Amino acid sequence: MKPKGLLVAVVLLAVLGGVIWYSNKKQAQKAKAPADTSPKIVSIPEARFREIRLQKAGAEPLVVSLVNRKWELTAPQPFPADPNTTASLISSLASVSADQTVEDKATDLASYGLASPTLKAQVIETDGKQVELDLGDDTPTNSGVYAKVAGDPRVYMVASYVKTSLDKTVNDLRDKRLLVFNPDSLTRVKLTGKGPAPEIVFGRSGQTEWQIVEPRPLRADSGQVETLLGKLRDAKMDLDTAPDEAAKKFSTAATVGLAQVTDTSGSQTLEVRKDKDNNYYARSSMVAGVYKTASDLGEALNKDLDDFRNKKLFDFGFNDPLMVEIKNRAGVTVTFTKDGKDWVGPKRLDNESVQNLIDKLRDLTATKFAEQGGGQPVFEASVTSNGGKRSERVIVRNQGDKYLAQREGEPSIYELDAKAVEDLDKAAGQVKEAAKPAPKKK
């Protein structure tokens, strides 16, 4: 063989050997690489949770159990469980992933704080299977927490929030609601409070709007009623104040209000009182004891009849009327009718000017209620809306320096601001004909 050919053969052999060496090295590295750098160490379908036991070092275990399809705190004391906190707890335990595996076969658990874990979380599934997650010391850099699953020799590092999400107290897990109801299911609400008519009863049938039925039938401000129900639904006990201390304060405090909510399953009551330091305390028919509560609950109950009355003169709201009839001070009556997208009277009208009048009618609101009516009629308006199903008629009268209004068929007398009446009268006078279309160019 020639020297040149021998040299080429040697070079080719070296290249081939290098390729084989590199390939073998990569295969070896691949074999040593972990299959999953963030292994999932706990995986339980949420529907399989039956009981959760939380055991902190040196403390009584906290047990949350599913009883008759509802979560209850069963130890160390029986209480209804807070639904949101329980749902968050289940979510945290249903899926736990490790940031890394620290040791495959740990022999010295004490060095990780796992010989006597700072927190144990045990889940008992519906079929009786048990899964236990032990949490120990924080890592030296405080970037995570050492963890171990019962029956698994490995020690893992999990994120610090895993421990935080499971570190609960009785007060965290306890349902702190003073009343438990669905506002959409209520049919009757009674409020006993202040004023000349201390007892107010609201009623409704199905999903219709709330009305005042006692002390006499009156239109209710549904927004005010819904605000009251929202405060009652969100009323919670302040567990930072001991129940015994709250009961002592309650016994000498002044009554603010007593609320009773009723649905098809029965009634619930809540009494709220205020002490001389403006602290509020509540006693509920749904939970034993007396508890301090938020001031906004007391303020929501501290209202009289007029606070809940509807001060709007018209109920058509944002429904587009089909017909508006106006009778002015001179006794002249004009009728505007909706024709498709346009308004017509004797002639086709300027939509913007009619809409301005409708806005003034929609916004017409009493400043307060008067005991007696009377006076000279100065304005009358009738509005037909809701596809012709709702007809409303309001008469405004002048009595000295006051303007008083009354809805047809209702005894209530609404006192109006003089400026509102002037603006309404002005808007009615500004309704004009629509501009004639420009002539077509020849």
Provide a descriptive summary of the structure in words.
Residues 6-16 and 18-35 have low confidence and may be disordered. The chain is elongated and about 100 Å long. The chain has three domains: 40-173, Immunoglobulin-like; 183-308, no CATH class; 323-429, no CATH class. It is an alpha+beta fold. The protein contains ten helices and 27 strands. β14 (211-214) and β15 form a beta hairpin. The termini are far apart.
How would you sum up this structure in a few lines?
The protein is an alpha+beta fold and 442 residues long. It is built from ten helices and 27 strands. The protein folds into three domains: 134 residues, Immunoglobulin-like; 126 residues, no CATH class; 107 residues, no CATH class.
Q: Which features characterize this protein?
A:
elongated; alpha+beta; 8-stranded antiparallel beta sheet; 10 helices; 25% helix; 442 residues; 9-stranded antiparallel beta sheet; Immunoglobulin-like
Strand order of the largest sheet: 5-4-3-2-8-9-10-11-7
List how many beta strands DSSP finds.
27
Number of domains: 3
The CATH architecture assignment of the largest domain turns out to be: Sandwich
**Overall pLDDT:** 89
Main beta-sheet strand count, sense and barrel state? 9 strands, antiparallel
Task: Extract low-pLDDT stretches.
Answer: 6-16, 18-35
Shape: elongated
Question: What would CATH call the class of the largest domain?
Answer: Mainly Beta
- What portion of residues is helical? 25-40%
CA-CA gap between termini: 104 Å
Say what the CATH topology of the largest domain is.
Answer: Immunoglobulin-like
Number of helices: 10
Structural class: alpha+beta
How much strand content do the residues show? 25-35%
CA-atom Rg in angstroms = 37 Å
